[in-house]
Amino acid sequence: MADTLEFNEIYQEVKGSMNDGRLRLSRQGVIFKNSKTGKVDNIQASELAEGVWRRVALGHGLKLLTKNGHIYKYDGFRESEFDKLSDFFKAHYRLELAEKDLCVKGWNWGTVRFGGQLLSFDIGEQPVFEIPLSNVSQCTTGKNEVTLEFHQNDDAEVSLMEVRFYVPPTQEDGVDPVEAFAQNVLSKADVIQATGDAICIFRELQCLTPRGRYDIRIYPTFLHLHGKTFDYKIPYTTVLRLFLLPHKDQRQMFFVISLDPPIKQGQTRYHFLILLFSKDEDISLTLNMNEEEVEKRFEGRLTKNMSGSLYEMVSRVMKALVNRKITVPGNFQGHSGAQCITCSYKASSGLLYPLERGFIYVHKPPVHIRFDEISFVNFARGTTTTRSFDFEIETKQGTQYTFSSIEREEYGKLFDFVNAKKLNIKNRGLKEGMKQSYDEYADSDEDQHDAYLERMKEEGKIREENANDSSDGSGEETDESFNPGEEDDDVAEEFDSNASASSSSGDGDSDRDEKKPAKKAKIVKERKPRKKQVESKKGKDPNAPKRPMSAYMLWLNANREKIKSDHPGISITDLSKKAGELWKAMSKEKKEASGEWDRKAEDARRDYEKAMKEYSVGGKSESSKAERSKKKKKKQEKQTKGKAEKKGAASKSLSSTKSPAKSMSESFKSKEFVSSDESSSGESKKEDSEEEGGPSPPPSSEDSASGSD
């Protein structure tokens, strides 16, 4: 038989609520660890007195009774696990695991039995319900009636607050059954009564949560916070952890007390009690006990007379009474040398302390996160500025905490700390300055083969080489941006240059020419890109050899149909992704053993190089010669057209000089009275200029001579 048994997702019943965790049974005893709080219950094997197996709401449950009267209930077992547990109890604990069923008759008349810290209401020999007396906060009596009030459970949506028992009168003299019932309850109930004097009192301590100044009275079993408005009584059994944290200014100290269940103020729950002390404040303390009692109870941890810093005295007394260790920051040091990091949580600024086994944020609201409940952490870019970053923590229960506005100088220290604690980091950006813009927000899966990315790279290389080939064919010209809205401006420029070429124009023409030169200079600069763009596009040869495919692309083309048949209805993107996964899954040895696709890729590359040599020697030169002859022919046609237009312009200027009166009268006409003949002639000139596509050459000497005649 195994020495240990472990069960996951077991629920422990505590004050009416079910807390999930892990249960482990060993030779030494029973251990239960709460998944929410991390609290561990350890029951020694020698303390076990009885074990009961019964059917409950969550399947089957195990109830353990100890010799000192404590009761522990664990639910969530399967019926098939009874034999295994029963054999384990017999072999290691020498206990018989008894089976008891609850009474489901629905009667409300029965017998009350007190056993240890448990009140059991039975009908016959079967229990109906049980009440742990530690849940009772108050017990009051009336005529033939006892009322039990319970502590409110903050973790449960609905809490049972009160139960009343009717106690019938008896004929026995001298014994009141109601008072006897109440005494049995009060002897085991968790009713806090401030009886006797306090061990010591700390006056006017500054408390951050709950906010205010409180007197702290230290009693043997509980802590009493007395303020101007509210009083709190905190049993030491509700204290989970103690923290002593130095402030970033090195002049103050935080003392944090973690509570479960929390203290209440109206509808507000305080899971942490945070005290703030100044390091310079000292105190002399005398305990309200004689030296023998102090030595017997605290075993040297406290003395009757003590003196020192106030925060040291409070933490020392609390440690001795609660009997828990005080957690302090570990070896972490931030950029400024402090043991904490300034950040914001839920729009409030505070301090984040990296501890040896978790993180704690002080102070509004206080947060404590253990390493064992963290699923992963994430370093994210700040949303408002690049001078800071966010630190995100997600727990295994799905809760996310975001600590924002952390100075970027703290990134290296915090990253090294998280890495040393072996926490799962969701992203691993650049450690020095987080300069990456995409990898910071994505998972680190760089080794995954991306078929779509490979295809894009191949197409990019093809475009780049084709662009280089076309630039070689077009001479020294380079590609520039093409502005399609400049054709009308270019036409106007050509018309103006033709008009200014005539030496004897009217006054109206001269005024119009004076307004154009600035526009002409601007357009001449912007015209070149269009001409170069057209020439570079014409220089691309469709007969040039195509680049060879890689081994992966050859393999993909050969196996595309097979992948489609294996995965009917698969999309193109999913097909590329699946092909990339299959190619990546092929081992390196398998690829080298077959060598088929590498050989095909090498053959294709050699064929491409051979075709490129032939193309550069023959085909490319012939195509370039044909293009040059076409360009030369077009240039000659433009020159002959320009000469004909210049002759017409010169004859028109000659006729205008012979009839000055007519030209003067025309020069004073407004634009509204321009004749239809002139407008049509202007449109014909515009069409001619659009066909030419460039400025016409200056008139030849023969044209000028004929014009002067």
UniProtKB/TrEMBL annotation:
InterPro entries this protein is in?
Answer: HMG_box_dom, HMG_box_dom_sf, PH-like_dom_sf, RTT106/SPT16-like_middle_dom, RTT106/SSRP1_HistChap/FACT, SSRP1-like_PH1, SSRP1/POB3, SSRP1/POB3_N
Q: Which residues form the signal peptide?
A: none
Q: Where is the composition biased (Basic and acidic residues)?
A: 532-544, 637-648
CDD domains per UniProt? HMG-box_SSRP1-like (cd21994), PH1_SSRP1-like (cd13230), PH2_SSRP1-like (cd13231)
Give the compositionally biased regions (Low complexity). Answer: 497-507, 650-667
GO annotation (BP), single: DNA repair
Record keywords: Chromosome, DNA damage, DNA repair, DNA replication, DNA-binding, Nucleus, Transcription, Transcription regulation
Q: Spell out the Acidic residues composition-biased ranges.
A: 474-496
Cite a GO CC annotation: nucleolus
Q: Which GO terms describe its molecular function?
A: DNA binding; histone binding; nucleosome binding
Q: Which PANTHER family match?
A: FACT COMPLEX SUBUNIT SSRP1 (PTHR45849)
To which protein family does this belong?
Belongs to the SSRP1 family.
> What is this protein's record name?
FACT complex subunit SSRP1
Which species does this protein come from? Answer: Alca torda
